[in-house]
Amino acid sequence: MIRIHHVLSCFLLAALMPALALAEPKQPSEEESADLTFAKSFVGKTYDDELDIEGWIDLGGGLVTPPVYIREYQREADGTFLVLTSREVSKASAIAPASYVVTDALMVPKPQKDFQFSIACVMAGDDATLRFMGEAKGSETKEWWTDIKRAWEITLETGQIASVKPKGIRCTNPGW
User: Fold this and answer.
1) What is the distance of C-alpha 46 from the center of its chain?
2) Is 52 helix (H, G, I), strand (E, B) or coil?
3) Mean pLDDT across the chain
4) Using CA atoms, how far apart are residues 136 and 116, in angstroms rounded to an integer?
5) Of the candidates 136, 141, 100, which has an alpha carbon nearest to the alpha carbon of residue 118?
6) Can you tell me the distance from the alpha carbon of 138 to that of 136, in angstroms, rounded to the nearest whole number?
Protein backbone atom coordinates (compact mmCIF):
# COMPACT_ATOMS: atom_id res chain seq x y z
CA MET A 1 0.00 0.00 0.00
CA ILE A 2 2.80 2.42 0.84
CA ARG A 3 4.50 1.59 -2.45
CA ILE A 4 1.32 2.35 -4.43
CA HIS A 5 0.89 5.67 -2.56
CA HIS A 6 4.50 6.59 -3.33
CA VAL A 7 4.09 5.68 -7.01
CA LEU A 8 0.84 7.68 -7.26
CA SER A 9 2.49 10.68 -5.57
CA CYS A 10 5.40 10.57 -8.01
CA PHE A 11 3.02 10.21 -10.96
CA LEU A 12 0.94 13.19 -9.80
CA LEU A 13 4.04 15.34 -9.29
CA ALA A 14 5.36 14.38 -12.74
CA ALA A 15 1.99 15.24 -14.29
CA LEU A 16 1.99 18.68 -12.64
CA MET A 17 5.61 19.60 -13.46
CA PRO A 18 4.89 20.94 -16.99
CA ALA A 19 2.15 23.19 -15.61
CA LEU A 20 4.46 24.46 -12.84
CA ALA A 21 7.27 25.06 -15.32
CA LEU A 22 4.97 27.10 -17.56
CA ALA A 23 3.72 29.28 -14.71
CA GLU A 24 4.93 32.81 -15.32
CA PRO A 25 6.25 35.03 -12.54
CA LYS A 26 3.90 37.77 -11.40
CA GLN A 27 4.11 40.64 -13.84
CA PRO A 28 4.46 44.14 -12.36
CA SER A 29 1.31 46.23 -12.31
CA GLU A 30 0.99 49.15 -14.70
CA GLU A 31 1.79 51.55 -11.86
CA GLU A 32 4.87 49.53 -10.80
CA SER A 33 6.10 49.48 -14.40
CA ALA A 34 5.58 53.24 -14.73
CA ASP A 35 7.46 53.84 -11.46
CA LEU A 36 10.36 51.63 -12.55
CA THR A 37 10.53 53.37 -15.93
CA PHE A 38 10.45 56.76 -14.19
CA ALA A 39 13.22 55.79 -11.75
CA LYS A 40 15.47 54.32 -14.43
CA SER A 41 14.99 57.41 -16.62
CA PHE A 42 17.41 59.23 -14.31
CA VAL A 43 20.30 56.78 -14.87
CA GLY A 44 22.97 58.53 -16.96
CA LYS A 45 21.52 61.99 -16.28
CA THR A 46 24.13 64.63 -15.45
CA TYR A 47 23.33 67.44 -13.03
CA ASP A 48 25.10 70.19 -11.10
CA ASP A 49 24.93 70.59 -7.33
CA GLU A 50 21.37 69.36 -6.62
CA LEU A 51 18.68 67.58 -8.61
CA ASP A 52 15.14 68.86 -8.07
CA ILE A 53 12.30 66.54 -9.12
CA GLU A 54 8.82 67.98 -9.52
CA GLY A 55 6.26 66.35 -7.18
CA TRP A 56 8.96 64.86 -4.97
CA ILE A 57 10.29 66.11 -1.62
CA ASP A 58 14.10 66.12 -1.42
CA LEU A 59 14.89 64.40 1.89
CA GLY A 60 18.62 64.92 1.51
CA GLY A 61 21.56 62.59 1.23
CA GLY A 62 25.30 62.82 1.04
CA LEU A 63 28.57 61.06 0.46
CA VAL A 64 28.59 57.25 0.66
CA THR A 65 32.30 57.00 -0.16
CA PRO A 66 34.25 59.02 -2.73
CA PRO A 67 33.09 59.47 -5.45
CA VAL A 68 29.64 57.86 -4.77
CA TYR A 69 26.79 59.99 -3.42
CA ILE A 70 23.19 59.19 -2.47
CA ARG A 71 20.03 61.30 -2.61
CA GLU A 72 16.61 60.37 -1.20
CA TYR A 73 13.24 61.71 -2.35
CA GLN A 74 9.65 61.05 -1.26
CA ARG A 75 6.66 61.40 -3.57
CA GLU A 76 4.20 63.93 -2.15
CA ALA A 77 1.14 62.02 -3.44
CA ASP A 78 1.64 58.59 -1.80
CA GLY A 79 4.86 58.47 0.24
CA THR A 80 6.82 56.33 -2.26
CA PHE A 81 10.60 56.71 -1.97
CA LEU A 82 13.05 57.30 -4.81
CA VAL A 83 16.76 56.84 -4.16
CA LEU A 84 19.39 57.94 -6.65
CA THR A 85 23.07 57.12 -6.46
CA SER A 86 25.50 59.33 -8.35
CA ARG A 87 29.19 59.60 -9.10
CA GLU A 88 30.93 62.94 -8.81
CA VAL A 89 32.38 63.73 -12.25
CA SER A 90 33.82 67.15 -11.41
CA LYS A 91 34.53 68.81 -8.09
CA ALA A 92 33.12 72.17 -7.10
CA SER A 93 35.32 75.15 -7.81
CA ALA A 94 35.16 78.84 -6.96
CA ILE A 95 33.18 79.44 -10.15
CA ALA A 96 31.16 76.22 -10.65
CA PRO A 97 29.27 73.70 -8.49
CA ALA A 98 30.18 70.02 -8.42
CA SER A 99 28.80 67.91 -11.27
CA TYR A 100 27.34 64.40 -10.94
CA VAL A 101 26.00 61.58 -13.11
CA VAL A 102 23.24 59.29 -11.81
CA THR A 103 24.48 55.68 -11.66
CA ASP A 104 21.38 53.88 -10.37
CA ALA A 105 17.86 54.39 -9.07
CA LEU A 106 15.63 52.56 -6.61
CA MET A 107 11.88 53.01 -6.14
CA VAL A 108 10.45 51.77 -2.83
CA PRO A 109 6.72 51.92 -2.00
CA LYS A 110 5.80 53.50 1.33
CA PRO A 111 6.66 50.84 3.96
CA GLN A 112 4.01 48.96 5.91
CA LYS A 113 2.78 50.24 9.26
CA ASP A 114 5.50 50.55 11.95
CA PHE A 115 8.33 50.31 9.36
CA GLN A 116 10.34 53.24 8.03
CA PHE A 117 12.61 53.48 5.02
CA SER A 118 16.19 54.46 5.81
CA ILE A 119 19.27 55.21 3.70
CA ALA A 120 21.43 55.19 6.84
CA CYS A 121 22.13 51.48 7.39
CA VAL A 122 25.30 49.46 8.01
CA MET A 123 26.31 45.82 8.23
CA ALA A 124 27.04 44.64 11.75
CA GLY A 125 30.76 44.80 12.49
CA ASP A 126 33.51 47.38 12.26
CA ASP A 127 32.68 48.88 8.84
CA ALA A 128 30.58 51.99 9.48
CA THR A 129 30.09 52.91 5.81
CA LEU A 130 26.44 53.82 5.24
CA ARG A 131 26.19 51.70 2.08
CA PHE A 132 22.97 49.91 2.96
CA MET A 133 19.32 50.94 2.86
CA GLY A 134 16.39 49.19 4.45
CA GLU A 135 12.85 49.08 5.72
CA ALA A 136 13.33 49.01 9.47
CA LYS A 137 11.43 49.22 12.72
CA GLY A 138 12.47 49.38 16.32
CA SER A 139 12.14 51.04 19.67
CA GLU A 140 12.18 54.84 19.76
CA THR A 141 14.64 54.57 22.67
CA LYS A 142 17.28 52.73 20.60
CA GLU A 143 19.80 54.40 18.29
CA TRP A 144 19.97 51.39 15.96
CA TRP A 145 17.08 49.31 14.63
CA THR A 146 17.77 45.68 13.74
CA ASP A 147 14.31 44.52 12.67
CA ILE A 148 14.90 44.93 8.93
CA LYS A 149 12.23 43.73 6.50
CA ARG A 150 13.99 44.39 3.17
CA ALA A 151 17.47 45.73 2.40
CA TRP A 152 19.60 47.02 -0.46
CA GLU A 153 23.34 47.55 -0.84
CA ILE A 154 25.20 50.23 -2.78
CA THR A 155 28.28 48.89 -4.56
CA LEU A 156 31.04 51.27 -3.52
CA GLU A 157 32.97 51.04 -6.78
CA THR A 158 30.04 51.67 -9.16
CA GLY A 159 27.14 53.14 -7.19
CA GLN A 160 24.88 50.30 -8.33
CA ILE A 161 22.02 49.28 -6.00
CA ALA A 162 21.20 45.61 -5.39
CA SER A 163 18.70 43.83 -3.16
CA VAL A 164 20.38 41.87 -0.35
CA LYS A 165 19.29 39.68 2.53
CA PRO A 166 18.66 41.86 5.61
CA LYS A 167 20.45 39.58 8.09
CA GLY A 168 23.11 41.52 10.00
CA ILE A 169 22.03 44.95 8.76
CA ARG A 170 21.04 47.70 11.17
CA CYS A 171 19.58 51.11 10.43
CA THR A 172 19.71 54.30 12.43
CA ASN A 173 16.55 55.35 14.23
CA PRO A 174 15.32 58.35 12.20
CA GLY A 175 14.23 60.11 15.40
CA TRP A 176 17.58 59.64 17.14
Assistant:
1) 21
2) coil
3) 86
4) 5
5) 136
6) 7
Q: Report how far Cα 168 is from the mean position of its chain's Cα atoms.
A: 16
**34 sits in which H/E element:** helix 30-40
What are the extents of the domains in the chain?
29-172
Give the residues across from 106 on adjacent strands: 83
- What single string gives the DSSP state of each residue in 103-132? EEEEEEPPPPTT-EEEEEEEESSS-----E
pLDDT digits (tens, 9 = 90+) for 79-121: 999 999 999 999 999 999 999 999 999 999 999 999 999 999 9
Bridge partners (DSSP) listed for residue 57? 74
Residue type for position 38: F
Q: pLDDT tens across 163-172, in order?
A: 999 999 999 9
